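**Folding the chain**
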Amino acid sequence: MKNYIQKGETLTVTAPATITSGAVVVVGSIIGIAATDAASGDEVEVDTEGVFELTKVTTDAVSQGDKLYWDSGASKVTKTAGTGSKPLVGVATAAAGNGVTSVNCRLMLTGQTGAA
C-alpha cells in the first residue's frame, strides 16, 4: 500500500505538559501512556494499546469490565462518567476495590467522553 504510515500502537504526540514515563497523556482524542519523560511541548511516544496499571480514584469500587474515564483534575482514572472533561481511557481488566489505589486498564483508542 502506498498510503500506509504505521500500525499505530505507538504514536508520537506533542506533550501537553511535563510528562513522566508511564503517565496518561491526553492530546485531543488521542489517549496513551507515555513511553518516556518529556517536557511540555516536546515530542513523546505514547502507547495506545495494551493493559496498564493506572492510578485510580481510591474511593471507586471497580469491577472487571467497568469503563474507566480520565479525571484530569485528580490525574487518575475513575469509573464515574462525566462531561467532555472525562474522556474514556479503557476498561478494567480486573477488579479494584474501595481503598485500592490502582487498577489494570485495557486502553481503548476512542476519545469518547462520558455521559453528562
